Amino acid sequence: MIEPSAEGRVVTCTVRYDACRWEQLLAGEWSVVRRRTYAGGISYLVIRRPLAVRCRLTSLERRVVELSRTGEYGKQIAELLGIHESTVSRALARALDKLGLTSRSDLVLLSAALDA
């Protein structure tokens, strides 16, 4: 479970580091559930998906997610990839949905925890 502090940084993380974990998440092997804690905070639960329901990210979605998690924004990503900003927005929205995340900040927090 990943629990961000009020400042948005990761305070606790019981996700064990695994070099392949991020790739597995992008490959649709894992899903993320965002939950509110009793103390009013937010926690993330990472769950392994059954083989039958795994949704792989397209190559564009993977590239957009990788750039987003490193701090790049829509316009910057669009310029780097040579595509329109609206295409970046749609790809990121589809990727977040497939990953079970609701926002770009969830992506950054999860990424930080998995890379820790």
Descriptive report:
- This protein has 5 helices and 4 strands.
- With 116 residues, it is α+β, with helices and mostly antiparallel strands.
- It is globular.
- Helix 2 packs across helix 4 (85-99) and helix 3 packs across helix 4.
- Strand 3 and strand 4 (42-48) form a beta hairpin.
- It has one domain: Arc Repressor Mutant, subunit A (Orthogonal Bundle), CATH 1.10.10.10.
- The longest helix has 15 residues, at 85-99.
Number of structural domains: 1
Helix/strand/pairing class, anyone?
Answer: alpha+beta
β-strand number: 4
CATH level 3 topology: Arc Repressor Mutant, subunit A
CATH class: Mainly Alpha
Shape: globular
Quick rundown:
This protein is an alpha+beta fold. The protein is built from five helices and four strands; from the N terminus they run ββαββαααα.
Q: Which helices and strands appear, and what pairs or packs with what?
A:
Layout (H helix, E strand, L loop, with lengths): L1 E3 L5 E4 L7 H6 L3 E7 L5 E7 L10 H11 L4 H8 L3 H15 L4 H12 L1
Antiparallel strand pairs: 1-2, 3-4
